[in-house]
Amino acid sequence: MQFGIFTVGDVTTDPTAGRTPTEGERIKAMVAIAQKAEEVGLDVFATGEHHNPPFVPSSPTTMLGYIAARTEKIVLSTSTTLITTNDPVKIAEDFAMLQHLADGRVDLMLGRGNTGPVYPWFGQDIRQGIPLAIENYALLHTLWREDVVDWQGKFRTPLQGFTSTPRPLDDTPPFVWHGSIRSPEIAEQAAYYGDGFFANHIFWPTDHFRRLIDLYRRRYEHYGHGSADQAIVGLGGQVFMRKNSQDAVREFRPYFDNAPVYGHGPSLEEFTEQTPLTVGSPQEVIDKTLTFRESFGDYQRQLFLMDHAGLPLKTVLEQLDLLGEEVVPVLRRELDARRPAHVPDAPTHDSLVAARSAAAVTR
């Protein structure tokens, strides 16, 4: 089981202090948060990809490469790589390069994003979102597995005798998660390839995501990758903690009320009741997170959103201390004890290399 954090990289005014960080300050804060995540024993740091204000992470591999040089163990990932508007050739080469720089501590999560105007900014049509995701990933998957590629599709110029460089580290591509909030076609795509499916379980009720994950598990088994309960599932979540739950609610309320992503809508109490958002003590975070297994089955990755809505860096680092010291050790122990032996761990570069070597021996 992997635990980590993901960031959307928003530049938001702190509603309690009235101060807005500069873009440079926010970028440096994200680096500090990644380093802190490793320090407290988390497994994964993931960044989103956005190309519009108020967000800053427009170049995830640049940021992750910088973080790779300052960390040793933590897996570096994206929480969105825009498979619809990025050229698959550039994705293939950028992430292979990052693999080499990070000694394999790399995977990525593909998605379509939630900003409609990004499509024309990069010369695409939002009405082709699903077909773009399907075709572009088919090419990306091929580029990482075939040394010389001849390819023709609908959305980009053909390739003739093309070799993507550098080749993936140890001839083993990064593990891919397909992220989705609402699209069964993406769950089907993840199942078809035997990749991971990440349900960004932060805004919508559990029943919605249960249907998506159930579909992915059934189709994963249908395509012969293993039993449904062996499918590779990841979940998002949001937390804000203090030792005393009343203190957590009082401190977080102004950030929730003014947050660009969910402010000025349902109340904090309504949101925590209907979504995975947990605002309270570490024990309350533990208790609620353990219910995810009851809804979705055994899963491999849990990421938390913690640095958003204008929360100052000092507060986020305090949150990470609580997560690493009081929450994650209990969740690891409880979830590992409940997971059947035949359910796999989260894939890593080393495990993928070993599986590739074992498959070569049996051929």
UniProtKB/TrEMBL annotation:
Gene3D superfamilies to which the protein is assigned, alphabetical: Luciferase-like domain
Record-annotated membrane-spanning stretches: none
Source organism superkingdom: Bacteria
CDD domains for this protein: Tetrahydromethanopterin_reductase
InterPro entries on file: Bact_Lucif_Oxidored, LLM_FMN-dep_put, Luciferase-like_dom, Luciferase-like_sf
Domain Luciferase-like: 1-297
Oxidoreductase found in the keyword field: yes
Keyword terms, alphabetized: Monooxygenase, Oxidoreductase
Keyword Oxidoreductase assigned: yes
Protein name, entry field: LLM class flavin-dependent oxidoreductase
